[in-house]
Amino acid sequence: MEKATSRLRVLALLVVVMFLALSTRLWFLQVLASQGFNKEAHAQSIRTVYTDPLRGQILDATSTPTHPVVVVGNQESREVRIMPSELGDQGEAVVLRVSQITGVPVKEIAKTLQDPKYLPTQAIPVAEFVSKKVKFDIAEHPEQFPGVSVQSTFVRSYPLGTTAAHVLGYTGLIDSTQLDDWKKLGYGPNDIVGKNGVELSYEQYLHGQQGVTRLLVNSDGDVLSTVSSTKPTPGDDVQLSLNDHIQRLAQKALLAGMQHARSYHDQNGDLLRADAGTVVVMDAHTGGIVAMVSTPSYNPLWYERGATAAQSKYLNNGNIGAVNDRAIQLAYTPGSTFKPITGLAAVKEGYASLSGSYDCVGKYTHPGDTSGAQFVNWTSVDLGYMSIATALEKSCDTVFDAFGSDFYYTWANNPLGANADPLQGDLRQWGFEQPTGIDLPFETGGLIPDPAWASDQKTLFPYGWVPGGDILTMIGSGYVQVTPLQLARAYAAIANGGHLCTPHVVDQIIGPDGSVAKKIGGDCDQTVPYTADQLSYIRGALGSVVTGGTAQCAFAGFPLSRVMVAGKTGTAERANKQDTSWFASMVGPNPDKPDYVIVTMVEQGGFGGQTAAPITRQVIDGLYPKIGDASTPSCVTTDR
After folding, report:
1. For residue 88, how far is the Cα from the chain centroid?
2. Can you tell me the distance from the alpha carbon of 134 to that of 272, in angstroms, rounded to the nearest whole number?
3. Which residue spans within 450-576 are E strands per DSSP?
4. pLDDT computed for residue 492 by the predictor
5. Which residues pair with 599 in a beta bridge?
6. Are 279 and 289 in contact (CB under 8 A)?
7. What phi and psi, each to the nearest 5 degrees, are found at residue 412?
């Protein structure tokens, strides 16, 4: 018993000794040795360095691996950046010094730094393409330039200038909204990203992946070793369906045609202003955009390098609207270009037939209407009975007005029934009142007015929907609003046998190794509910518009036997503005399979046959250079 007790005492003593030893060691590590460990920890740390990737190029449709046609590229630059959060109380002095060595005015630098789209912790670019001397001056005097750095980087180059600016877009420093949305994708506060056009829509492909290098450095910042390193991955190249040559040609034709239109007078005797417009050239079978011109335009470099005061004033002038892509971002009353589509709707609903004959009176009154409202044709003369094809050729409003009354009766007799407003439903089947889905940002959907919409417009429709709502919609007037691209898409469906193709400006994505990473576009699965015979009839009718109708003057002398042109003029009234000039057309050697659809629209351009149709003639002459003569007919018309 005593031996056992003695053993327990020895064991207990050993446990106490071991505990004291461990406690002593722990005290030593925490108290006596801590300073040494702290020095060692501070002496070495990991620094992460990010290397920006080279942004992908944007190529035109004719580009090949051996002969690339670059419409947006990269240019090496030295960029001065200022991080506001590091300026301290020297902000004004630093800005003044930066202004003095870069030549950028103080006001411009201050305006850039105060832009709310940037964060205080971002290195904001304030000057580009600075000299090596500027870089050395800033590096040698860090105490005079806190928060200022000079970065060697690549900036975008836009060799086309104002040509296709709305399609291509531009880049800039990521703003706070984009950073919130894209932070989870690995974007940081100093990344350059797409802001508009293809640059924005295809940001995920163009951007590339940052390179990341982890360096072991001491307390003096000296690099001891490289822990790990990943090279940046360049962005993918984006090849467009857009053809640089056709784009330039269409822009030249539009600007020349607008200038020519300013020599004409409107109905009041005033010279036409013809101050804005668009031309859309689309592949009728794929939806590929061959050209998309919008004017007034701008130079993307103004955004890349910072706009001057004069440039900013121009860009921000809402009356000019240079930043708006008129092909997709603004909607207009389409005028008589709508008649082929509403005419088909009348046939579909049984109010008309392709073999029927309809009275083209000088003035039309809705049956039973006692309000005194009259709808006048472009001429007061009664032109007699005619087919739908002739009504399109002559652009007779009152034939279509009568169809509008039939549509109104359908609604009035059963306003709460299924398909109570068939005209509006039929028009939406063509894609109107909804974005086309083109691969460009900020597209608008337009408007197809209907009884439900009118019920919310108490000022315009105090008594609700009225006959004039359907009557004016039938002739593309009243409150109908469509984009030029929506109209082009609908005409393409007439041209290709009924397929509504999703428009696209990009054809394919090309990886850094030159391989095709992804094909874009070609979605034509959606169709319109019309037979091949019905669509063929409309194509023939539109051909007669060019050979003997409202577009005859514009195509005088054109060899239509070799290249078919079919189209419809349009002249649309616009509140407090001169009339909008339209011509929507299809063209190609095969009348049954046109190659392209071309839609031309000129704001305040007068009659469609007077301005838009001759511009389209110029574009077609360029598309088929061995056919046309590239002359500009002078056409003064009084019809629509």
Report:
1. 41
2. 52
3. 499-500, 506-510, 516-519, 526-527, 564-574
4. 98
5. 280, 584
6. no
7. -60, -35
CA dist 183 → 48, 49, 187, 441, 466 (Å): 18, 18, 5, 20, 52
pTM: 0.86
CA–CA gap between residue 629 and residue 606 (Å, rounded)? 25
pLDDT digits (tens, 9 = 90+) for 390-414: 999 999 999 999 999 999 999 999 9
Residues of the chain by 3-state class (helix, strand, coil), percent to 5? 35, 20, 40
Instruction: List beta partners, residue 276.
Output: 603
**Residue whose C-alpha is closest to residue 245's, from 74, 72, 73, 69:** 69
Q: In terms of DSSP bridges, do strands 70-82 and 58-59 run parallel, antiparallel, or are they unpaired?
A: antiparallel
Q: Are 152 and 78 in contact (CB under 8 A)?
A: yes
Phi, psi of 328 (to 5 degrees): -135, -20
Q: Which residues contact 66 (CB under 8 A, 6 or more apart)?
A: none
Residue 351's CB is within 10 A of a number of other CB atoms, namely 21
For residue 405, the model assigns a pLDDT of 98
Distance CA 590, CA 596 (A): 11
CA dist 101 and 145 (Å) reads 11
Is residue 413 within 8 Å of residue 465, measured between CB atoms?
Answer: no
Kindly report the CA angle at 534 between 533 and 536, in degrees rounded to 5?
60
What is the torsional sign of CA 145, 147, 152, 154? negative
